Amino acid sequence: xxxxxxxxxxxxxxxxxxxxxxxxxxxxxxxxxxxxxxxxxxxxxxxxxxxxxxxxxxxxxxxxxxxxxxxxxxxxxxxxxxxxxxxxxxxxxxxxxxxxxxxxxxxxxxxxxxxxxxxxxxxxxxxxxxxxxxxxxxxxxxxxxxxxxxxxxxxxxxxxxxxxxxxxxxxxxxxx
Length: 176
Known about the structure:
Layout: H1 18-27, E1 35-37, H2 44-51, E2 56-60, E3 68-69, E4 82-85, H3 92-102, E5 106-112, H4 119-124, E6 130-135, E7 158-164, E8 172-175
Helix pairs in contact: 1-2
């Protein structure tokens, strides 16, 4: 059993709750243009974007019921202004770097708050346009996507990390 209380999910598929996507959307400046979730899973993020009238597309490497399946983020190019995603955590830095090379507005990723740690990332953060970190005041429970396990109180701290094109200086830290 992992710290999250769930066994490791196949291909790191964990489902974020709608409320945490809504909280980020409430805190962030409005999106302009098309938003892409390249790790869409069952579609929580693109669904919440569309519910607010934000044009969104969805894809995933695996067929999980939402968007284009078989789409590998690391080899596919999609014309989108922004990326909003809950990516595989082990490749988050690669997602940021590639996402920034493909977008014109921002890259918003739901990651463990501990993403702020690490010697390698310490040197990388000042070279990236990290603009905002929205720390979740509530613990987020993300059960494996291929299970019927109900979401219960989370054990891990999460935050939305936002890299914005053109941002210079230190990131803003806020709470949602």
